[in-house]
Amino acid sequence: MKLICIGRNYTDHIKELENEKPAEPVVFLKPDTSILLKKQPFFIPDFSDDVHHEVEVLVKINKVGKYIDKKFAHKYYDEIGLGIDFTARDLQSQLKAKGLPWEKAKAFDGAAVVGKWLPKTKFQNINNINFSLKKNDEVVQKGNTELMLWKIDELIEYVSKYFTLKIGDIIFTGTPAGVGKVFVDDQLKGYLEDEEMFSIKIK
Ligand code: ZN
């Protein structure tokens, strides 16, 4: 399986990193080895001094598809989740400055937190879900899927032009503002509406 990640999908986060608003979604992949194992802490890798949390709504693909029209995209997922796209921001900035790929900063072991899954039927409207991240019990990131530049069904249409979607693939839909550095002993907890979706200790 693969993790398909979207960058720059919330205006407030684009401003915070002083990026330009893209004309098309920014897409990158993480391998399955980047998924943080259940109940394990996240270890800050030795090649970075500036690992950031990016909380993101996740979509799990339930059917094989290619060139999926956004009208039919809702048939390709039943579950919504929440995760973290951990990013070695120092390394990413160096790679970006050189025009090089981001993978070392985004796809390393443990860089993808995948929390629990909820049936999408739990939500009245997929495009109006509140989510948040607490660091040591303080809210540091807050978003609503309504604020995505490209909504979930549009993202499925877009990424399936390039990649065949397979059962179990996960889409990371981008992060809102409030990304920040993690420190040893931090505790990160993610919420979809009021439901706790993951709890991660930083080591
Ligand atoms: Zn991200």
From TrEMBL:
The keyword Metal-binding applies. InterPro entries: Fumarylacetoacetase-like_C, Fumarylacetoacetase_C_sf. Keywords: Metal-binding. Residues 2-201 form the Fumarylacetoacetase-like C-terminal domain. GO terms for molecular function: acetylpyruvate hydrolase activity; metal ion binding. It holds the Pfam family FAA_hydrolase. The keyword Manganese does not apply. Gene3D superfamilies: Fumarylacetoacetase-like, C-terminal domain. SUPFAM superfamilies: FAH (SSF56529). This is 2-keto-4-pentenoate hydratase/2-oxohepta-3-ene-1,7-dioic acid hydratase in catechol pathway. It comes from Winogradskyella epiphytica.
